[in-house]
Design brief:
Length: 162
Amino acid sequence: MAKREKLQKTNAMRELERAGIAFDVRTYEVDENDLSGVHVAEQLGEEPGQGFKTLVCVTASGGHAVCCIPVAEELDLKAAARALGEKSLVMMHVRDLVSVTGYMRGGCSPVGMKKRFPTVIDETCELWDEIFISGGRRGIQLVIAPTDLVSFVGATVAAITR
Protein backbone atom coordinates (compact mmCIF):
# COMPACT_ATOMS: atom_id res chain seq x y z
CA MET A 1 0.00 0.00 0.00
CA ALA A 2 1.50 3.32 -1.06
CA LYS A 3 1.86 6.03 1.56
CA ARG A 4 0.02 9.24 0.89
CA GLU A 5 2.45 12.09 0.38
CA LYS A 6 2.18 14.63 3.20
CA LEU A 7 1.69 18.23 2.12
CA GLN A 8 4.41 20.48 3.47
CA LYS A 9 2.91 23.48 5.27
CA THR A 10 3.57 26.96 4.01
CA ASN A 11 4.03 30.15 6.06
CA ALA A 12 0.46 31.11 5.13
CA MET A 13 -0.93 27.84 6.54
CA ARG A 14 1.14 28.09 9.72
CA GLU A 15 0.05 31.69 10.40
CA LEU A 16 -3.63 30.90 9.88
CA GLU A 17 -3.40 27.82 12.10
CA ARG A 18 -1.68 29.80 14.87
CA ALA A 19 -4.47 32.39 14.67
CA GLY A 20 -7.15 29.68 14.82
CA ILE A 21 -8.59 30.66 11.43
CA ALA A 22 -10.39 27.94 9.52
CA PHE A 23 -9.24 27.21 5.98
CA ASP A 24 -9.15 24.33 3.53
CA VAL A 25 -6.31 23.39 1.20
CA ARG A 26 -6.66 22.51 -2.47
CA THR A 27 -3.80 21.36 -4.64
CA TYR A 28 -3.42 21.52 -8.39
CA GLU A 29 -0.93 20.65 -11.10
CA VAL A 30 1.35 23.59 -11.88
CA ASP A 31 1.59 24.53 -15.53
CA GLU A 32 4.82 26.55 -15.86
CA ASN A 33 3.55 27.87 -19.21
CA ASP A 34 0.37 29.29 -17.66
CA LEU A 35 0.55 30.43 -14.03
CA SER A 36 -2.62 32.51 -14.30
CA GLY A 37 -5.33 32.29 -11.70
CA VAL A 38 -7.90 31.80 -14.44
CA HIS A 39 -6.08 28.63 -15.52
CA VAL A 40 -6.00 27.40 -11.90
CA ALA A 41 -9.74 28.12 -11.51
CA GLU A 42 -10.46 26.17 -14.70
CA GLN A 43 -8.37 23.22 -13.47
CA LEU A 44 -10.23 23.11 -10.16
CA GLY A 45 -13.68 23.80 -11.60
CA GLU A 46 -14.00 27.05 -9.65
CA GLU A 47 -15.72 30.31 -10.45
CA PRO A 48 -12.93 32.77 -11.49
CA GLY A 49 -14.63 35.59 -9.59
CA GLN A 50 -14.16 33.62 -6.39
CA GLY A 51 -10.40 33.21 -6.86
CA PHE A 52 -8.20 36.14 -5.81
CA LYS A 53 -4.68 36.85 -7.00
CA THR A 54 -2.18 38.71 -4.86
CA LEU A 55 -0.34 41.63 -6.45
CA VAL A 56 2.42 43.56 -4.71
CA CYS A 57 2.92 47.23 -5.47
CA VAL A 58 5.45 49.91 -4.63
CA THR A 59 4.21 53.20 -3.13
CA ALA A 60 5.40 56.68 -4.13
CA SER A 61 7.52 56.77 -0.96
CA GLY A 62 9.18 53.42 -1.72
CA GLY A 63 7.06 51.31 0.62
CA HIS A 64 5.04 48.27 -0.39
CA ALA A 65 1.34 47.47 -0.54
CA VAL A 66 -0.63 44.32 -1.30
CA CYS A 67 -3.69 44.21 -3.56
CA CYS A 68 -5.96 41.16 -3.90
CA ILE A 69 -8.31 41.08 -6.85
CA PRO A 70 -10.34 38.44 -8.71
CA VAL A 71 -8.08 36.40 -10.99
CA ALA A 72 -9.76 37.48 -14.23
CA GLU A 73 -9.69 41.19 -13.41
CA GLU A 74 -7.15 44.00 -13.80
CA LEU A 75 -5.94 46.18 -10.94
CA ASP A 76 -6.89 49.85 -11.04
CA LEU A 77 -3.71 51.34 -9.55
CA LYS A 78 -5.30 54.75 -8.93
CA ALA A 79 -8.28 53.26 -7.09
CA ALA A 80 -6.00 51.00 -5.02
CA ALA A 81 -3.75 53.96 -4.12
CA ARG A 82 -6.81 55.98 -3.00
CA ALA A 83 -8.09 53.05 -0.92
CA LEU A 84 -4.72 52.77 0.82
CA GLY A 85 -4.30 56.52 1.29
CA GLU A 86 -1.28 56.57 -1.00
CA LYS A 87 -0.33 59.16 -3.61
CA SER A 88 0.33 56.48 -6.23
CA LEU A 89 1.20 52.82 -6.75
CA VAL A 90 3.19 50.95 -9.38
CA MET A 91 3.48 47.20 -9.79
CA MET A 92 6.53 45.68 -8.12
CA HIS A 93 9.03 44.16 -10.54
CA VAL A 94 8.80 40.36 -10.38
CA ARG A 95 12.57 40.11 -9.67
CA ASP A 96 11.98 41.82 -6.30
CA LEU A 97 9.06 39.65 -5.21
CA VAL A 98 10.96 36.92 -3.36
CA SER A 99 13.28 39.28 -1.51
CA VAL A 100 10.41 41.50 -0.32
CA THR A 101 7.66 38.95 0.34
CA GLY A 102 9.33 35.56 0.58
CA TYR A 103 7.02 34.32 -2.18
CA MET A 104 7.56 33.66 -5.88
CA ARG A 105 5.36 34.62 -8.82
CA GLY A 106 2.38 32.27 -9.00
CA GLY A 107 2.61 31.45 -5.30
CA CYS A 108 2.26 34.83 -3.59
CA SER A 109 -0.24 34.84 -0.72
CA PRO A 110 -1.50 37.86 1.24
CA VAL A 111 -0.85 35.77 4.36
CA GLY A 112 2.61 34.84 5.63
CA MET A 113 4.80 37.39 3.85
CA LYS A 114 8.14 38.30 5.42
CA LYS A 115 6.50 41.48 6.70
CA ARG A 116 2.92 42.74 6.96
CA PHE A 117 2.13 45.36 4.35
CA PRO A 118 -0.92 47.58 3.96
CA THR A 119 -3.46 45.46 2.08
CA VAL A 120 -6.57 46.17 0.05
CA ILE A 121 -8.95 43.48 -1.18
CA ASP A 122 -11.46 44.08 -3.96
CA GLU A 123 -14.98 44.56 -2.67
CA THR A 124 -16.26 41.61 -4.71
CA CYS A 125 -14.82 39.35 -2.00
CA GLU A 126 -17.96 40.20 -0.01
CA LEU A 127 -20.13 38.40 -2.58
CA TRP A 128 -18.78 35.01 -1.47
CA ASP A 129 -18.89 32.89 1.69
CA GLU A 130 -15.47 31.52 0.72
CA ILE A 131 -12.74 32.77 -1.58
CA PHE A 132 -9.63 31.11 -2.96
CA ILE A 133 -6.16 32.60 -2.42
CA SER A 134 -2.67 31.30 -3.02
CA GLY A 135 -1.43 29.00 -0.30
CA GLY A 136 2.08 30.44 -0.50
CA ARG A 137 3.50 28.04 -3.05
CA ARG A 138 2.64 27.15 -6.62
CA GLY A 139 0.20 24.25 -6.66
CA ILE A 140 -1.46 25.14 -3.35
CA GLN A 141 -4.61 27.14 -2.86
CA LEU A 142 -6.36 28.09 0.39
CA VAL A 143 -10.12 28.33 0.77
CA ILE A 144 -11.00 30.94 3.41
CA ALA A 145 -13.90 33.13 4.49
CA PRO A 146 -13.26 36.64 3.15
CA THR A 147 -14.21 38.18 6.50
CA ASP A 148 -11.51 36.07 8.20
CA LEU A 149 -8.90 37.09 5.61
CA VAL A 150 -9.79 40.79 5.81
CA SER A 151 -9.64 40.71 9.60
CA PHE A 152 -6.42 38.70 9.80
CA VAL A 153 -4.39 40.84 7.40
CA GLY A 154 -6.04 44.10 8.50
CA ALA A 155 -7.19 44.79 4.96
CA THR A 156 -9.26 47.58 3.53
CA VAL A 157 -12.09 46.45 1.26
CA ALA A 158 -12.68 48.67 -1.77
CA ALA A 159 -13.45 48.73 -5.49
CA ILE A 160 -9.95 48.36 -7.00
CA THR A 161 -10.52 46.70 -10.39
CA ARG A 162 -11.31 48.19 -13.78
